[in-house]
Amino acid sequence: MKEIHPATPETISECPAFKKRLLPILFFLLAIARTLSGQCELANSTFSPGEKIYYDVYFKWGLLMPKAGTAVFSIDEAMFRGKKAIRQQLTFRTTKLIEKAFSMRDTIDTYFTPELLPLFYEKHALENGYYVIDEMEFLYKDGQTRIPTKRYTPQRVKIDTVHVVNGCMFDILGVTMYLRSLNMENVTIGDEFPASFVMGRDIVQIRYRYAGQSVVERSETLKYKTLKFDMDVYDEAVTQTKNAFEIWISDDENHIPIKIRAKLKIGAAEAYFKKITGNRYPLSSEVVIPSRR
């Protein structure tokens, strides 16, 4: 297991990657753990309402690797405008150490049809005292998707636009569906899966490549059998396009993101699976080795 060195708020806040690059990526980090291909509707074969996944997020900068925050990803049944829906929620908060330099309290809620077609996206972000809200609605007609998009603070509107695309388009949590739904029996090393999602004024293009089976070690007594994917991200927020992210999902029927690594200009951000409740299938990818003591 990696050694985690102590850090101070002063050393963290001095890092130029922290405020400008790391914090947006930390929230992005878990949301891109799974993505979507060309079809708009997906058959859910991996999760059930009530699933909740917990993560620890770290910032690796040289020899330092402080814990940056905690995240929780949950899925529940809901109602959206009088119809049955599925709600995904992702929450992130910084640790006390990091908050001395820069605090975050962020929440994303996304509503989908039972066939996992996105309906509505809302993000509330409180970052170092600055409060901003993002909203997107997905409207479908004649093979096109219209996406009215707003970003605003209590004082003013910052973004008010409409994206119009042919076929499918998703939000940052909408792209979390495909890898969990992917039938890995037909996937071979090197296979690629392109996708797109809306973030504010931008449409972000990504591309996954399957890199094969891998083992993620969390300690001397705990390991996970995983399937590894490399991901290219075509967006200004990411300093490295090729292999900007590495994602390890559990090699079982749950397809849970076990580890996610985002490469930064200085250092990296890493998210590690901590625990899951309400999972649909046993976590058979987990390997517990008896202690020698």
Q: Approximately how much beta-strand content do the residues carry?
A: over 45%
Shape: globular
Helix content: 10-25%
Q: Report the radius of gyration as a whole number of Å.
A: 19 Å
**Please, what is the average pLDDT?**
81
| End-to-end gap | 18 Å
| Biggest beta sheet attributes | 16 strands, antiparallel
What is the subunit arrangement here? single chain
Instruction: Name the poorly predicted regions.
Output: 1-23, 32-39
Order of helices and strands: HHEEEHEEEEEEHEEEEEEE
Number of strands: 16
Structural class: mainly beta
Please give the count of helices: 4
Features:
293 residues; mainly beta; 16-stranded antiparallel β-sheet; 51% strand
